[in-house]
Amino acid sequence: MTKIKHYETMFILKPTLGEEEIKAQIETVRANIEKNGGEIVSFDDMGSRQLAYEIEKNKRGYYYVIYFKASGTSILELERNYRINENMLRFIFIKYESKKDIAAWENLCQEANKKASSN
User: Fold this and answer.
1) Architecture of domain 4-118
2) Using one digit for the tens of pLDDT, what is the confidence trace for 10-33?
3) What is the pLDDT confidence band of residue 102, given thresholds at 50, 70 and 90?
């Protein structure tokens, strides 16, 4: 049996996407996580922000973070999906392994849930 781990993924979408396109992109990512056996615990929609540096001639990007649990093998498939998505400027996966890290992950989830419920 594959061990379930705690992850965070953040991705930046192109700022040229319309609101509906952004929602569709986010929904695609969420569906891919679930299709690959992941369980989404929380998310943080950070919205459009200034990039630290220009990426593909873009000065801004749409930031989105998802906190989820999944097996390590599913991450490879998720990364593959990210790489072939031309609307994604950048992405990162962070794995939380130690008890201290997992506690921090749980706090991040709680904060994101509070933020989401206040919007």
Assistant:
1) 2-Layer Sandwich (3.30)
2) 999 999 999 999 999 999 999 999
3) very high
Helix, strand, or coil (residue 32): helix
With 60 as the cut, is the pLDDT of residue 47 above it?
yes
93: buried, middle or exposed (CB in 10 Å: 19+, 13-18, 0-12)?
A: middle
The total of other beta-carbon atoms located within 10 Å of residue 11's CB is 22
**DSSP conformation letters of 36-102:** TT-EEEEEEEEEEEEEEEEETTEEEEEEEEEEEEEEHHHHHHHHHHHHT-TTEEEEEEEEE-SHHHH
How far lies 21's CA from each of 17, 28, 74, 88, 105, in Å? 6, 10, 25, 12, 29
The kind and range of the H/E element at 1 are: none
Handedness of CA 35, 40, 44, 45 (dihedral sign): positive
Residue for token digits 């400027």? 89
Q: Using alpha carbons only, give the angle 96, 102, 108 rounded to the nearest 5 degrees.
A: 95
